[in-house]
UniProtKB/TrEMBL annotation:
Cited SUPFAM superfamilies: Mitochondrial carrier (SSF103506)
GO BP, sorted A to Z: mitochondrial NAD transmembrane transport
Family: Belongs to the mitochondrial carrier (TC 2.A.29) family.
Gene: slc25a51b
Species in which this protein is naturally found: Danio rerio (Zebrafish)
Predominant localisation class: mitochondrion
Subcellular location: Mitochondrion inner membrane
Top-level taxon: Eukaryota
Keywords: Membrane, Mitochondrion, Mitochondrion inner membrane, Repeat, Transmembrane, Transmembrane helix, Transport
Name used for this protein in its record: Solute carrier family 25 member 51b
Gene3D superfamilies attached to this UniProt entry: Mitochondrial carrier domain (1.50.40.10)
Amino acid sequence: MGVVTTMDSDSARQPQGKLGGHALIGANLGARGKHYVCGSLAAFTNIIVTFPIQKVLFRQQLHGVRATEAVGQLQREGLRHLYRGLLPPLLQKTTTVAIMFGLYEDFSRLLLRHARSSGAPELVTRSAAAALAGTAEAALTPFERVQTLLQDHRHNGRFNNTAHTFRTLLRDYGVRECYRGLVPVLLRNGPSNVLFFGLRGPIKQWLPDARSRMGNMANDFVCGGLLGAALGIMFYPLNVVKSRAQAQVGGKFVPCHTILMTVWRERGGSIVLLFRGATLNYHRSLLSWGIINATYELLLKVF
C-alpha cells in the first residue's frame, strides 16, 4: 500500500470501480492523458460561469475603481461587450489548467522515480514538480496579454478580437510584446502551484468525511475554493502589476518593482487602495477554484 503524503489528493489514488462505458473512455485517454483532459474541461466550465466577474475585477485592478463603478462601465458598454475578450482566457485557462494538473502528475512520476534512488523527501520532490508545472504554464502568457487588451475599454477601438490583437502585436511590435508581464506571471505561478498541490490534500482530510458522491464533490469544492481564495489574496499585488504592465502597448518594459511603486504612489500609499478589487477576487477565486477542483476530481472518477 502507498503512503498518502501532504501532496496527495483523490486524483492520485482513484478506486477501480465499475464505471461501464466511462471506464472505456478513461482507458482510451490513458492514465496520463486523462489528467490533461479533466483539467481542461474543469477550466472550461469555470470560465463560462465566472467570466463576467473576472471582467469587473480586471477593471478594479487596472483603474482602482469600486466594484459598482466597474459594473457601471460594463452596463454602459452593453451586453454586446460583456463577453468581449472571452476567447483568450478560454484558450489560456483550459490549456494552463490542463498543463497544471497534467504536468504536475507527469513531473511527479518522473521525479519520484529518481527520488527513490537518491533518498530525497517526497514532499520536496512533489513541490519541485508543482513549481515546474507552474513555470511551464507561463509559456501561455500571450493569452493573458491579449485578454488584458481586449478587456481594457481604452483599446476597444484599436483591437477587434483575439486574432486581430495577436496579428497587430506580432506585426507592429514582435513576439516579445506578447510576453509583456511575464515576470509577475512567473513569480505567481510557481509558488501558488506549490501551495495549491501541497495543501489541498491536508485541507480535505480536515473536512467531514463524505458518505456520497455529492458530499465528496462538496468537499472538493470547499477545498479548492478555500485554497484558491487564499492564494488569490496572497498574490493579488502581482496580478495588479501584471494588469498594469499588460495594459501598455509598446514602449519600454518596466520592471515589476517600478510598476508596483508607481501604482502605490498613484493610490496614495494606501494598502486598501492597492488591494482594491481583492474582495471580489476572493469571492471569484472561491467560486472558480471550487468549480475547477470539484469538476476535475469528478471527471477523474467518471473517466
